[in-house]
Amino acid sequence: xxxxxxxxxxxxxxxxxxxxxxxxxxxxxxxxxxxxxxxxxxxxxxxxxxxxxxxxxxxxxxxxxxxxxxxxxxxxxxxxxxxxxxxxxxxxxxxxxxxxxxxxxxxxxxxxxxxxxxxxxxxxxxxxxxxxxxxxxxxxxxxxxxxxxxxxxxxxxxxxxxxxxxxxxxxxxxxxxxxxxxxxxxxxxxxxxxxxxxxxxxxxxxxxxxxxxxxxxxxxxxxxxxxxxxxxxxxxxxxxxxxxxxxxxxxxxxxxxxxxxxxxxxxxxxxxxxxxxxxxxxxxx
Amino acid sequence: xxxxxxxxxxxxxxxxxxxxxxxxxxxxxxxxxxxxxxxxxxxxxxxxxxxxxxxxxxxxxxxxxxxxxxxxxxxxxxxxxxxxxxxxxxxxxxxxxxxxxxxxxxxxxxxxxxxxxxxxxxxxxxxxxxxxxxxxxxxxxxxxxxxxxxxxxxxxxxxxxxxxxxxxxxxxxxxxxxxxxxxxxxxxxxxxxxxxxxxxxxxxxxxxxxxxxxxxxxxxxxxxxxxxxxxxxxxxxxxxxxxxxxxxx
Lengths: 285, 249
Prior knowledge:
CATH architecture of chain B: Orthogonal Bundle
Mean pLDDT of chain B: 93
CATH topology of the largest domain in chain A: Rossmann fold
Number of strands of chain B: 0
Largest interface: A-B, 19 and 21 residues
Radius of gyration of chain B: 22 Å
CATH superfamily of the largest domain in chain A: P-loop containing nucleotide triphosphate hydrolases
Order of helices and strands of chain A: EEEEHEEEHHHEHEHEEH
Helix content of chain B: over 70%
Shape of chain B: globular
Mean pLDDT of chain A: 87
Number of strands of chain A: 11
Low-confidence stretches of chain B: none
Helix content of chain A: 25-40%
Order of helices and strands of chain B: HHHHHHHHHH
Largest sheet of chain B: none
Distance between the termini of chain A: 49 Å
Structural class of chain B: mainly alpha
Radius of gyration of chain A: 19 Å
Oligomer: heterodimer
CATH topology of chain B: MetI-like fold
């Protein structure tokens, strides 16, 4: 597969990544603090980030650094304490129209078969039945679930259930797709194959994708850019441009360039992971 | 038919056959028990004559009323307790030890409140059944995965739509277990209360037959109750199996 041989560009200041054109997604000075039983936990920020339309951006970082909190803010599930979050130039207040989210946990509805799971959002939105059938059939076919349309999630493997969730998101034709460690529970081979399917989906839909992941190889293989977050409170300490072309697939993992990107990500992340471990050890002692 | 079902049927058939033989050989005296085949003949006579139709209908209506009331009250109470964690923490030990209290001790209270008849019978049956529905509702709501509620928010669903379209179906297996238990407790509560609190109903008819040494009638009516409960339970188990089979991984 084509892998751009360009050098990895490492920009230490995420704010300087602002594109000239209006960003599809823009975060400015975002912070998030949780309060519980009289205690405050500074979970995130300040974070600045701009995503261009149609970009594939991944976020990696140590556990508990606020990756999922960042996604929740972008999805309108949690408001930030300070800063502004915008999608398509409009402030994010509540879940914006045109946004789809795939979670790490199995979010398929166990009481509905695959077809009805995928059709759920469209039916709720009152879409015409003929249009529902057309879109659902396409999404099910696209995700390779054609022979399982009548099956219930319980009859499917973990990977297939995650594909149902992706199809359920895809069918609504979101312009921004956010995935929170969607392949976390899958084995390595399935993850690579699911990665290919995600890239295919990205190419066909031209949606902007934000992927939260623990897996450096996944981020390196799939993304145009990878943001590395620090330990809590999470901020972007690095943004790595991969330089892959749009037609990439999982075969890039065998190229030297892939090794270079992964090594660069690990170099940054290792320091943060060690910091996080020493913090937890200090707390436990 | 599956092997377990064949085995189950075989065990029941063997027990019935053993009792039949022991009764026919007079090892079990006629005054103590009649043969199961005679029970079936007597039951057929009773059903054909319509002699106890009013009692049977009265008991069934009482069981249905008690089930509907206990399921509704239990579900609503479960929702309220679930939404108030402080109240739940206070009530949970009471709910856990509830079935240690013999509910029937309250029958004088209910007679004072409702008089002798259906009111007191239903009240005792509801008191017996309602907590199983409360516990099942709490269980069901606890088991809804957080990610499903989050999915509802992503679909921009209102709180009520999320409850109806996501939370209720997700909790359905636990809620159905509550319904099954409510039906069972309602049967127990109604039939047992009819022995002491009523001048009608199958429970009363069994007690009447017992007091007047009408052994065949007594056993026929007991067989009727067993068949009714088995039939209802088989039906509910069938629905339960369908619900569970969709979700069994």
